[in-house]
Amino acid sequence: MMRVLVFWFLVAVTAVVTAVNVTYDHRALVIDGTRRVLVSGSIHYPRSTPDMWPGLIQKSKEGGLDVIETYVFWNLHEPVKNQYDFEGRKDLVKFVKLVADAGLYVHLRIGPYVCAEWNYGGFPLWLHFIPGIELRTDNEPYKAEMKRFTAKIVGMMKDENLYASQGGPIILSQIENEYGNIDDKYGPAGKSYIKWAASMATSLNTGVPWVMCQQKDAPESVINTCNGFYCDGFTPNSKNKPAMWTENWTGWFLSFGGAVPYRPVEDIAFAVARFYQRGGTFQNYYMYHGGTNFGHSTGGPFIATSYDYDAPLDEYGAPRQPKWGHLNELHKAIKLCEEALVATNPKYTSLGHNAEAHVYKTSSTCAAFLANIDSQNDATVTFNGNSYHLPAWSVSILPDCKNVVFNSAKINSVSTIRKFVTTSVSDESGASEAISSDWSYVSEPVGISSDDAFNRPGLLEQINTTADQSDYLWYSLRADIKGDEPFLHDGSQTNLHVKSLGHVFHLFVNDQLEGSATGSASQPQISKDIPITLKSGKNKIDILSLTVGLQNYGAFFDKTGAGITGPVELMGLTNGSSVDLSSKQWTYQIGLKGEALGLNTGGSSLWVSGSPKSQPLTWYKTNFDAPSGDNPVAIDFTGMGKGEAWVNGQSIGRYWPAYIAPTSGCSDCSYKGSYSSSKCLKNCGKPSQKLYHVPRSWLKPSGNVMVLFEEIGGDPTRISFATQELESLCSHVSQSHPLPVDTWSQDKSRIKSKSEPRVSLECPHPNQVISSIKFASFGTPQGKCGSFSHGKCRSTNALSVIQKACIGSRTCNVGVATATFGDPCIGVVKSLAVEASCA
User: Is 247 a catalytic residue?
Assistant: First the structure.
């Protein structure tokens, strides 16, 4: 009997865990013998929290994704050699299993160099100190460590049966990352390294293909792929490999000191449609959800704490509309074409100047893409005997080679306006304040305060000194000034000239802050003259040097230094002479006293009641209750300068609202024409980032502890909580919009019935209903969500019709038709614009 039970148990397990064979040919990935057209999106597990993962993955699935892509972050998992951490936000196995539970595939980009605007490109700093090591080249010490970690991750995945060959979700793995962009700098050793990396990876026998992105000379054993804003012109380096796009940048990263980049969804949809139009079959959005650079994880340097990336799912996990919805409609349209796309290669036909068609046709199916790649002028083309209007910089998708179901420039999805609203919460004393009126503080000592301080002649490079154990390094010097210097008698000042590799420094003379200097993302190095006041006799000069994330990209990026490397010179002495202090005996302290005492957790008996304002080098602490509800929470750091913040001991990252973006460079941005990271910018003249994400899972209903370390001076009593609220829900649909995708029959070959374009609204929360209609107009309305206006042509009953159809319901669906609203202007193509609110 026992043998029978064991037998049936094994049968049951086999039925659930079925191995999947993943291969590829010149057209596509082949999964269990079937070519697939796949849509993927990047979600980096440590840039969100485990409680957010299921929602992010589910929204990705609802958005039409087949695959979730993530890097594996070496320095996160092995901060000390042979000491691993896979807990909490680092639980890679849990994340992969959650993706599998949702029925999606995984692309695991092991790297282990990841770039990713991640500190030191994902490498642990201890690599830097291995004797004889050279990173990312044909170097034996480095290759041994790279192989060991890669094998560690592969082994973990195998142990949990997570590769498709074992019945798991992982269908792809990546080795290295964008090495082809810089491999020429490494010479022949770079070429041999790439061959070794491919051989090493494939020898691990994962049973799934490996890829190398941006690697034109990738060995035959791996697939070379494209990264960029556009990859429709990409051709693999072998006729046996499919065209794959591993990074389609949905926006761009934010830098402290910079304006906020964004990318119009019409351009993204155009780029994606063009890629599939011209033969691509696998495309990945980088990012689909960007998330947050918690702690010191961000690299760059000067990359901000927010990694929102203008992604379809915003930093807090909410769908960014209309980007999420418009791309979802695109994915549905592409899937309608899948049978034709994988069956054959496209046939190209010119439709006129800057207009073209690609047709996928077999005896049983036909799909066509019509593109107008002109960046200014619309076009009317004839295809298969029918006339089609193609807006500039757009692609129309025809799953039956006749009817248009999607045009990349015509948005038929909901738009939303989400705003962060300042909330009032009660502190533990019951007072109603933005965060709290009850603060305490500890002053961080200026200069050397640790018994572990040490002396060295000359100026030390910072990274080699701190091993990135802290952002901070004190350089301290005692200078003896004779009493006959003119500036001691005539009231004038001398200057201290300081040159640094970056990224920021604060200069103190005799414990007083005399000045600061800041680099930038484009120029982290600093050279500055700071006026100082010296006295006769002994003077104490202390320079606090700090990093804002280590270099993460470029050839030999690991050799990029930081800190006060000099010269450091007293300028303007007697007869215009100067004194070079660089070679003097300096005293060094790694990190802050408060860090050593663990003040970030809120502990210690050193806290003093009060909140001194505009004081540099100050630790602040308060207790607070969490904002009510379940909407995402951020802290508005208006009033603060620069520093780091912790909530209940968890670092929410570096804050820097004092760094203001340039006043110029922001303007209305057209989606038409090639996109670049500087093309579309907003928030000029404002703080690069003032809102900082606090995950709900880090908060308790009451008794929370917030700790700040402020470097340059601020007023913590001005800090407030803000919760993300949905302000408006909008849709603007024209009678000329393509037929909705859902009007197609299951066999994807014919229209079910004649259908009209429709305005569809849905409140995002299951417990919400449409509570009011702020605007409704049928005719020729103008503007966008939040600023609609009536045109000269307008129906008089549009508002009442929409109110009747929508108010009190979570969803409503109204046809854009004269039968519903009447015809206020015969012969004119009309549209319906609606703005609603939910409660």
Answer: yes
